[in-house]
Write a structure and sequence with these properties.
Blueprint: H1 4-21, H2 29-48, H3 62-81, H4 87-101
Helix pairs in contact: 1-4, 2-3, 2-4
Length: about 100
């Protein structure tokens, strides 16, 4: 069964992974994904949360911190401002935006 959001995520991740794979080790997958998520969280935070973090996270793991921030942002958005927001849509947007800027 096909789901448009899932298809969009699949396409975004496929392009994202291909770009990182063919980058000749200029960036690691972990770093690229952490950067994409961090950029998405920063944009959403600036627009909807006064540029403040969505949740306090103390971690040396940038990917973990980013995913926790993204999950908190999606929770806030889906509960209050954008009822259709999901992690699937957020991750699709983050990776697509990263591709467009790199």
């Amino acid at each position: 069964m096909s789901d448009t959001a899932t298809d969009t995520l699949h396409d975004a991740l496929d392009a994202f992974l291909g770009t990182v794979f063919w980058s000749d080790d200029e960036v690691t997958l972990e770093d690229a994904l952490a950067e994409a998520i961090d950029d998405w969280v920063a944009l959403v935070s600036a627009e909807f949360n006064g540029s403040r973090p969505f949740v306090d996270v103390v971690s040396n793991d940038a990917l973990r911190s980013g995913l926790l921030q993204m999950a908190a942002a999606v929770g806030m958005l889906s509960d209050q401002l954008q009822p259709g927001m999901t992690m699937t849509l957020a991750l699709s947007s983050a990776t697509t935006d990263w591709l467009e800027s790199n």
